[in-house]
Design a protein that fits this description.
The chain is mostly helical. Among the domains are: 129 residues, Bacterial muramidase (Helicase, Ruva Protein, domain 3); 69 residues, no CATH class; 55 residues, no CATH class. The chain has 18 helices and seven strands. The strands form two sheets. A five-stranded antiparallel sheet has the order 4-6-7-3-5. A two-stranded antiparallel ribbon has the order 1-2. The longest helix is centred in the middle third of the chain and has 16 residues.
Length: 394
């Protein structure tokens, strides 16, 4: 199944705002707008034939704006999303693909330091190994979003990048399709990232992420490395923890060395704990009674790829499973809050002076931090997991 976020980098891009939006041309007559794109592209030295091909093919797509305006919010818990996402299909076909494209994966690890299972997990979650890549015309989608005045500063560079891809012979602007926000190919990358990080993995002289698995594998590896991946280091390790663990030390905001976590009683559930000097955060996606992980610095790359904590942790967990780890111990988490209760909790936290961002019913990082602070104040186990009992105490 297609992942709920639309693309590997779409969540990151669409979550960003900029004060410079006013200075980027947008709106007005669409044809005149595209003439402005033509002039800018020519001034930047793009080939005139590629410029004309993109400009002449571009059309507004009202379906793109509908999808943009109707973005759903992600409210599944980690257990809900991960159980659905880490399916037998993805595990079986992941193993087959890692074997089928072993040469490309070996090259990716040799040149970029990124293990096969890490790339394969993104490939699985983004498009089910290329099966669901999106059917929106890429140029139309990016032209529409660039013309729209909500975030033109984000999408206009991507529209210009399609000219570069056309110039390189890596796309036909009339037929290239992908996600509604402009991501392309098996690992759903934006055109500017493809131009900057694209690798010809199959030796045909082109970078075509829609049809070439080796191109997608090598290009994804290059992008992942550029996000800060450290070769040979772990990213997520499932652990067990004693009941007297200082839960207030959990969360991405606190990092301890692996040997310090061990001194507190944490143990790797599978195999050995990574080297003692590496720092990690204790992640409790559903509190102290649910799964527990140590997240090392490579985990930060997952948050670069997609800012959703649930998606990022699921992608990291899926990579460990593809690498041979056992299924996590789901535990018996305390019941969480429904949408209405979560919004009520956020309102109460905001009234107490906490910055929880938008009252949206999503258990994001700011809400987790506020929950943990209130748990400490009330003398409760500070595992950042909001429960009906905590809500009633507030």
């Amino acid at each position: 199944m297609k992942n709920l976020f639309g693309g590997a980098l779409a969540f990151l891009v669409l979550a960003t705002t900029s004060a410079t939006a006013q200075s980027v041309p947008c709106g007005g007559d669409f044809n005149r707008f595209m003439q402005g794109v033509r002039a800018e592209a020519l001034s930047k030295g793009y080939d005139s034939r590629a410029v004309e091909a993109v400009v002449r093919s571009a059309r507004q797509d009202p379906k793109v704006l509908s999808r943009d305006r109707a973005q759903g919010v992600f409210k599944q818990t980690f257990l809900e999303f991960s159980k659905r996402s880490v399916s037998s299909y993805r595990m079986t076909h992941g193993a087959k693909n890692m074997e089928r494209y072993r040469a490309a994966f070996d090259r990716a690890q040799r040149e970029f330091g990124v293990p096969p299972e890490v790339i394969t997990a993104f490939w699985a979650l983004e498009t089910d190994y290329g099966a669901v890549q999106g059917d929106f015309n890429t140029v139309n989608a990016l032209a529409t979003l660039s013309h729209d005045c909500r975030r033109p500063q984000l999408f206009r560079p991507q529209l210009l990048a399609t000219i570069g891809m056309t110039q390189n012979g890596d796309m036909d602007p009339a037929t290239m399709t992908g996600a509604w926000a402009g991501e392309i190919g098996m690992v759903q990358m934006l055109p500017a990232d493809i131009l900057a990080k694209g690798v010809d993995g199959d030796g045909d002289g082109h970078v075509r992420l829609k049809t070439s698995a080796p191109d997608a594998i090598l290009t994804a590896a290059n992008l992942i490395r550029s996000m800060g991946w450290h070769a040979g280091e772990p990213w997520l390790v499932e652990v067990t923890a004693p009941a007297n663990t200082p839960w207030e030390k959990s969360g991405l905001g606190t990092k301890l060395r692996a040997d310090q976590w061990q001194a507190l009683g944490l143990r790797a559930r599978n195999g050995n704990m990574p080297g003692g000097g590496m720092q990690a955060s204790l992640l409790l996606p559903q509190g102290r009674k649910g799964p527990k992980f140590l997240a090392f610095r490579n985990y930060d790359v997952y948050l670069e790829w997609n800012q959703s904590f649930v998606y990022s942790t699921t992608a990291a967990y899926l990579a460990t499973r593809l690498g041979g780890a056992k299924r996590y111990d789901a535990g018996t988490p305390d019941a969480g809050l429904n949408d209405a209760q979560m919004k009520q909790l956020q309102q109460k936290l905001a009234a107490r002076g906490y910055d929880v961002g938008k009252i949206d019913g999503i258990l994001g990082g700011k809400t987790r931090d506020a929950v943990q602070a209130e748990q400490r104040r009330l003398g409760l186990p500070a595992d950042a997991w909001p429960t009906p009992a905590l809500l009633s105490r507030l």
